[in-house]
Design goal:
By secondary structure, the protein is of the alpha+beta class. It is 27% helix and 27% strand. The protein has two domains: 2-134 and 301-309; 146-293, 3-Layer(aba) Sandwich (Aminopeptidase). It contains nine helices and twelve strands. The strands form two sheets. Strands 1-2-3-4-5-12-6-11 form an eight-stranded mixed β-sheet, sandwiched between helices. It has a four-stranded antiparallel β-sheet with strand order 7-8-9-10, covered by helices on one side. A hairpin with a 5-residue loop joins strand 9 and strand 10. Helix 3 packs across helix 4 (117-124). The radius of gyration is 20 Å and the shape is globular. The two termini are 24 Å apart.
Length: 310
């Protein structure tokens, strides 16, 4: 099996151009064809930043997911291929960055297909308890989304999230995140405010992750059942508001890395051709939002934490 690596661009960790790393594998001397197994693993956390977080944020995608969804039962060989890939990646990663990593850290495998989760447990001798509860994966394609974008709700203004509201934003979810991460997602956020003041926290916001998934979505309890959650989610995916990555870079060049740029800068055209979201089965509100965006229910996924010693 061949293991290759490459750097992919996203506005993650400031304006640098090599911001997260993807590793892919496929059989030696073979291309990535539909009938051959392939795996892609994306690492979002820069090695030098693992010290303050102790987590390596990872997403794993595999051609086996499609086969499982079509009803195929994975055999021991399939599981072994995934295990080998994960071990190869881990060994290469730890060896390449051993001078930057702390002695102990955690791999956080996000959005991992439930049927493939045992491969992670076996690869790292992790107990089944390392996996979270299952979440529903919703796939959102641009062509299935609403074709017209609604006007900004009356009396509200649209903008990005701001650093002075990070405590409120972090407290809105039980998923562990931090202010350093939110700082990187300012250009990938949409928020609604009451009037022109930014002294008060937003009443609704949506944030997309580096893989373009809807990773954060929240509405103030006093403003729910008004369609605001759907509005900010749709804006993140298909709306005309907010900033494209290129505009964010231009703004940072002119105003400095610490300058927050207003989301009132408007960008033409479609930003994302597709997106996805992991939703708690019991979260009927978020499920309705995904379905309203044209999302279709896919498979179940889990989030897996693996403790590692360098």
């Amino acid at each position: 099996m061949k293991l290759t690596a490459g750097l992919f661009y996203d506005n993650y960790w400031s304006a640098e151009k090599s911001l997260f790393q993807c590793w892919a594998s496929f059989a030696e001397n073979e291309s990535v064809d539909e009938d051959r197994p392939w795996h892609v693993l994306c690492v979002y956390t820069r090695p030098e930043d693992v010290h303050w977080n102790k987590n390596v944020d990872i997403r794993f995608y595999s051609s086996l997911e499609k086969q499982v969804n079509e009803g195929r039962q994975l055999d021991d060989k399939d599981a072994s291929i995934v295990q080998i890939f994960l071990r190869q990646w881990s060994n290469a990663y730890l060896d390449a960055y051993k001078d930057l990593l702390p002695s102990k850290l955690t791999y956080l495998f996000g959005s991992f297909h439930s049927a493939l989760a045992p491969s992670v447990h076996n690869a790292f001798n992790a107990p089944p308890s390392a996996s979270s509860q299952p979440y529903l994966k919703y796939l959102i394609r641009r062509e299935n989304s609403p074709t017209t974008h609604p006007a900004v709700p009356s009396g509200l203004e649209v903008d990005a999230i701001f650093t002075q509201h990070f405590d409120v934003i972090l407290s809105s979810s039980s998923i562990p995140r931090n202010k350093q991460y939110l700082q990187t997602r300012i250009p990938a956020s949409t928020a609604l405010y009451r009037g022109s003041s930014r002294d008060n926290a937003p009443i609704a916001f949506s944030v997309t992750a580096p893989d373009r998934s809807l990773s954060m979505l929240w509405v103030d309890p006093g403003y729910r059942n008004r369609g605001l959650g759907s509005w900010v989610a749709e804006d993140r995916l298909v709306g005309p508001y907010g900033m494209l990555e290129r505009e964010w870079d231009d703004a940072r060049d002119r105003h400095g890395a610490e300058k927050e740029i207003s989301g009132s800068w408007k960008a033409e055209g479609t930003r994302f051709m597709w997106s996805h979201a992991d939703v708690d089965v019991k979260n009927t509100g978020s499920r309705r939002i995904c379905e309203g965006l044209g999302g279709t229910k896919g498979w179940t996924v889990v989030w897996i934490r693996v403790e590692v010693e360098v």
